[in-house]
Amino acid sequence: MLNDRGKVLTALGQKPMKIFDVMKRANINNQEVCQSLLLKMRDEGSIKFDIKKGLWSLN
Length: 59
Prior knowledge:
Elements: H1 2-14, H2 19-26, H3 31-44, E1 47-50, E2 55-58
Antiparallel strand pairs: 1-2
């Protein structure tokens, strides 16, 4: 899980992206696992979600 966090942060460092793009770049196969991780990271303040555009990005 900790390794996946690093991959997500690296992927989002390039540009804001949708969940499926995050899954591809971070090499996470399960959508539910990826979404759960993204939500945890959002709650911690590491990343943010733009609800109007549907994009995840770094804070």
